[in-house]
Amino acid sequence: MTAMLEMRGVSKVYGSGPTEVNALRDVELSVDRSEMVAIMGPSGSGKSTLLTIAGSLEEATSGEVLVDGAELSGMSSNDRARLRRRSIGYVFQDFNLLAGLTAVENVALPLELDGSESGMARATGLEALRTLGLADRAAHFPDDLSGGERQRVAIARAVVGNRRLLLADEPSGALDSVNGEAVMRLLRDACRRGMAGVVVTHDAQLAAWADRVVFLRDGRMVDRTAPPPGPESLLSGPEQ
Amino acid sequence: MSVRHALLALLTEGPRFGLRLQQEFESRTGEVWPLNVGQVYTTLSRLERDGLVESDDEGGEGPQKHFRITSEGHRELTVWLHTPPGTDTPPRDELVIKVLVALRVPGVDVRQVIQAHRRHLVEMMQRYTNVKAEAAQHDLGLALVVDAELFRLEGVVRWLDAADARLGQLAIPGPAPVDVSGSQDRVSGRR
Description:
Chain A is an alpha/beta fold and 240 residues long. Chain A has 8 helices and 10 strands. In chain B, α5 (92-104) packs antiparallel against α6 and α6 packs antiparallel against α7. Classes of the chains: A alpha/beta (240), B mainly alpha (191).
């Protein structure tokens, strides 16, 4: 099976000479459909750079990035923009909702930008909000929503339509632990329904929602967790 | 607290008499763990029996005996430093001791030791989170127990992160990279 996201030998250098910063060094990462991978590392380890390159918001200095088998560097900027609108959903710590649009208009926006007829886009947006338990908040503006609700709207926008790759940067950073858990549960559900997810975080509790956790330090991937043995092993008493 | 491994760690700095080991153990642990000299000699004789230390034959018995660590002892110490404690709920103090010991043992990469424990803790958190995501969704009691464990483990991870950051400020190099690509069999070298 082709991985939904594949990064091969990806490096990113900012500046040059004495001010040169190696934000990413030789990153190898592959994420399948229905899989959620967490990238864990301290501030400045390159987590956000990795995410913006995976999402084609920024270009790698060297290496290859493939989304659903298509190499990003081989695409025209129009094709990349289309890929971002159609296939990639982003969730940021600060929600990034447009204040002048209602919840459903925010969710439907990427579909409309991609040429969907407005009524159709709205119906799809409403369906995404319903899935996240927000149907009754569809007509509210972001300022009238709680932090948890705003992030759920942002998740609805990130999963609406036929998006295949879900990228999240500290998605519950500003929320309390109960709302943060709800956000992670929704991201995990979206991945269970077939999206490939990458969540970057410094928070072990968030990272623990992922199928795999990869540890990043100074732009390098230094370690990753083993596949979990399953919850039953925790409940059957201490291990040897 | 493993007296056995603490003594091995002290011996990595060079051969010692038993009495000096006892004094160094107490001063290095801030005298929080008093250790009587009889306990030191009992532990040393077991270490010698197991081939982890050796002593001068001509030194005689008791305080005159000079001990040094063997290559088998070095191996044992390195394995202990990298091995998660035997239970699923490691007491944090033991982890603190491991990191303190790792700082002093020549040839041990302390940040690698930190990463080995961080990985183990996050793996345990993944398993508890799976319980919460599935079984605990409709079982409040279980959810609360799992939360308590997750917050405890998170606290330990945060301490490791802070320790790592402090070491980073001292320019102690971090772990070497490994191939961590998606496929489980492509990992080239877990450290």
